């Protein structure tokens, strides 16, 4: 179907100009002409997203429909909304486009062609169309001919819902409609909502095809060895997967099929707060023409100051994977050899790295402990302990135990080593201790991936029963056991026991847990 016919069938009437599949330069040009953003001195497009500078979980809904009702894990994460409310909002949203320009990007989600989904993005803003162009998988000229979308995402930040009439939580909404194969977004200009809502869609669809969807980054070594980095927002997926000695596959969302892993996306969405050339050279260099920046502070000459958090701590850069040298453009990799669970522990009590048994891996995957860091979600001003099953509960439409079981089977069948890495605090809790040095975390990750931590001596953590290596190249040995970094050892024990209690409380909510994993839960004190 032609794009115009498709727009008619979606109900669009009287739109001004339809800009279809523009190039990066054209989109940047439009965005600047429209006054949506400004170029920085490195050539990136910097936009200000206004009131919404992070994801807004309370504004995210799934239309409650008979065909999906029994599959969805309804609750605070997956909030139901009635079809009639969707219809009402949809009608107003489409009318809102009357007399306005719209931007279309057709692309793919899912690098493995067997599982990829054709998505049409319809944007009010050129800058957001640039975002999806860079973040999703760009089609070839040939693939664009007769492109028929399997899912459609419509995003209009300028359109606001009326919570009283529309039964939304606020003026902002992100609504997934599985039967209509559609996502609609309004009220918020934070572009992360577009990528994460398509992620949520895939997290429902792909398990039906035998693919485990994962909230993780991935890279691959010269020997074809794949490593996965699971972690909630801010734990270091993007930062640690950008490694000059390995090839980047993707920084955030992947699927694990019987044959290997594949990226869902074609771009990265990196945090920029306090970005430095020395610490994160690859990301620093990726911020150039074609990259879209969100809420970074720049002066009138376009010089940016990455340390300025006046709009948000969640400043971002969106760029295509090929802006990272050596990235795997096909977006695929072998069955993983190493899995790293990243946690940013704001209590400062978890070891910087520990090796997990398969049972411990399952336990920690189900627990998904980390701290929500400031900015990524609305209302979070300082780190807050959270248990987010699968290290990605906000994006999982089904019961987390379902994904955990799938991962368990994959881990059983693969020859894979699993580590838990604390990229958070050390020497004391947030406010007292310091964030783990990035160079140390990188050294530990490298040692784990290269197999150097297979044959070193380990000691067991007395409370969490985690196995801590006693040495690791590039890391002072004394920091490997967290109690050593705390001045007051009694305080350490107090905080560790408090966190252990939280682990226990959280895990008690799971039912039907296999006995060998229950044993792990019981061993923690
Ligand atoms: N030890 C560490 N390990 C990883 N990231 C760290 C560390 N210390 C500080 N950081 C900072 O924390 C942030 C991690 O964010 P990011 O990699 O974007 O996380 P994610 O991709 O998981 O959301 C970056 O801004 C990075 O510079
Ligand atoms: C984009 C997001 O994810 P991450 O911080 O994991 O990159 C987000 O949570 O809004
Ligand atoms: Mn990231």
From TrEMBL:
Textual note on the cofactor: Binds 1 Mn(2+) ion per subunit.
Binding site for ATP: 196, 215, 231-239, 280, 316, 441
Co-factor(s): Mn(2+)
GO molecular function, a single term: ATP binding
SUPFAM superfamilies: PEP carboxykinase N-terminal domain (SSF68923), PEP carboxykinase-like (SSF53795)
Catalytic activity: oxaloacetate + ATP = phosphoenolpyruvate + ADP + CO2
UniProt main location, coarse: cytoplasm
Alphabetical list of CDD domains matching this protein: PEPCK_ATP
Presence of the UniProt keyword Transferase in the record: yes
Protein name, UniProt field: Phosphoenolpyruvate carboxykinase (ATP)
Gene: pckA
